[in-house]
Amino acid sequence: MDLQFESDQAAAFVRQPDGTLFSWSERFCCYNHLIYAIENKTGGTVKLMTNTKEFEWRTGESLLKRMEAEGIVKQVFPLHDEKRRKQLVRNWALNWLDFTSQPIDEVYSYFGTKIATYFAFLGMYTQWLFAPAAFGLVLQLWDFGSWQLFALPFFFIFVISWAVLLFQFWKRKNSALLTRWHISLSNDSMSLEPGYKKSSDSEFSSFMESHVELEKTIWTEKPKGMAKAFPSDEWLGNFRKFRNNAIVIMGIVCLQLPFELAYAHFYEVMDSDIMKFGLTALYLLAIQYYTRLGGKVSVCLIKNEDNKSRESSADSLVYKVFGLYFMQSYIGLFYHALRHRNFMTLRQFLIQRLIVSQVLENLVENSIPYLKYSCTKFRASRKRKHEKGSSEGKPMLPVTRVEKEYMKPTYSASIGDEVEDGLFDDFLELALQFGMIMMFACAFPLAFSFAALNNITEIRTDALKLLAMLRRPVPRAASTIGAWLNIFQFLIMMSICTNCALLVCLYDQEGTWKIEPGLAAILIMEHILLLIKFGFSRVVPEEPAWVKANRVKHAQVQEMCSKQLLRNICNSPEKKRE
Q: What angle separates helix 423-439 from helix 343-390, to the nearest 10 degrees?
């Protein structure tokens, strides 16, 4: 449970997986609080002077904020711990022999909850990809002859069941990780005020010692926000969200859809495969700028929404931007499948899309931070040489470690870092890949092998990018993968519909579209798969038994403390005088 931390009672508080008392997120909150809490309490304005300028420090003003406004302090950011960074580079980023194995607890201790949750999900998703990848490889290389018509539906049922079980077991793993890290689903460590920490269930004496302050709070404070709780505010907030979603949908239909259909048309009329590859590469480059522009517009829209926290704003942004990328990634494939109804041409189109998009995205994702760092370092070097030439005789100070870290780019999203960080692009890449391999699984079973190989590389390159090419990210609270889980569930539902349509094309080559036994069997299979999805979601528990037992124990301790607090309040002198 959450109690105020007292240094003389440190033994009563649970420790992190690495043995430390505070997590990286909690330490960062404390650092921020300490350095920004230095205020002028002298009662008058103080004049301060640096080597280049003089400025006034007003009463009650934060010193650091004033120095940032004057340009003396350029930016406040966390530094890498060189010893731990090199250890993670050796044991994690460059450890290619372990494939999907990762030191998740060490990643959590160094980067915080959100990044550790992403890598835990990426590792589990990649491990689970091996089964459909092996099945798809057999289907692609082995000639089943007339049995191919039965092998593809069986593969389809297997893939849907695999996807449903993947996310059910991910929920179990996620709850186990949060319990191991002592994080509650309803109350992240970052949501705690600085100076607060979780205490073990058996010792809560410090809480009882501070019940006097709690009594004063309970009897003197009035509920906040009662005057503002009008139903009209809630309806106005919902109307704003509806309006913003309508703007995004209209932008997709009126602007992006014609562009996507034009690309699909030009792709069809070209005969050369080289020209098609070139057109696809140009299209992906152009559409990246369009979707980034749409993402920036979405960021501006959600600023007008009445979201309760930064994470709820981030979830709203995820839904809006994914709609843009969904149209960009799949409309050409839908157009091609409906127009030709041919597995071989659709498979060729999918191969081009997977190869070009994954290679291009990996190049852009990993080369841009390195190029930004190289350009910043080159400009700083030229500036120092120019200053050395203008001030001959004066010794040049060496470049400090802080200056080197400052030159590195930040871990920010491509649409801006106002709401989301760089994990937005990483999760978006995974979601688009998952949709590609799932919605067209029957047309190209080998896509799962491509995805598995790409994700094995993605784990190490993302780790190396965070440890070597970027600044250390600011820790952010995230107990789950958030809105992305709903997007993955939506893609599973879409894959049931699209693969059933693909099987209709496979069984109905003449285009008669009659309800024959084969088509009726496919419709029955669609309903069975929907039942499988919802059935597995109910049968497989979302948390292990030991996690549930720990949660029940935690609730019992909280109830015990609450009852004791109520007894103390009822027996207090102030209450008796009433």
A: 170
Evaluate whether 66 touches 39 at the Cβ level (below 8 Å).
no
What pLDDT is stored for residue 223 in this prediction?
Answer: 47
Instruction: Choose among 310, 328, 253, 333: nearest CA to 424.
Output: 310
Name beta bridge partners: 48.
Answer: 55
Q: Are the C-beta atoms of 369 and 465 separated by less than 8 Å? A: yes
Average pLDDT, 10 consecutive residues per value, the chain (578 residues): 65 73 84 87 84 84 87 87 91 86 91 92 95 91 75 88 92 90 60 40 38 42 45 65 70 69 75 77 74 74 70 78 78 72 74 72 71 74 66 59 83 72 86 90 88 91 90 83 90 87 68 56 73 76 80 75 71 58
- Total-model pTM: 0.79
Q: How far, in Å, are 446, 510, 557 from residue 507 at the CA level?
A: 21, 9, 61
pLDDT, residue 188, reads 45
Cβ contacts of residue 371 below 8 Å, gap of 6+?
none
Please tell me the distance from the alpha carbon of residue 504 to that of residue 522, in angstroms, as a whole number. Answer: 7
Q: Name the burial class of residue 54, with classes exposed (0-12), middle (13-18) and buried (19+) by CB atoms within 10 angstroms of its CB.
A: exposed
Integer Cα distance of 525 and 155 in angstroms: 12
- The answer for 173, left when phi > 0, alpha when psi is -120 to 50, beta otherwise, is alpha
d(CA 346, CA 337): 6
Q: What angle do CA 511, 514, 518 make, to 5 degrees?
A: 95
Copy the structure tokens of residue 70.
């004057």
How far is the CA of 548 from the CAs of 80, 174, 184, 544, in angstroms? 36, 13, 12, 6
pLDDT for residue 238: 66
- Largest Cα separation within the chain, whole Å, is 93
Which residue has tokens 């949908």?
Answer: 249
Torsion (CA) 38, 42, 43, 44 in degrees, nearest 10: -90
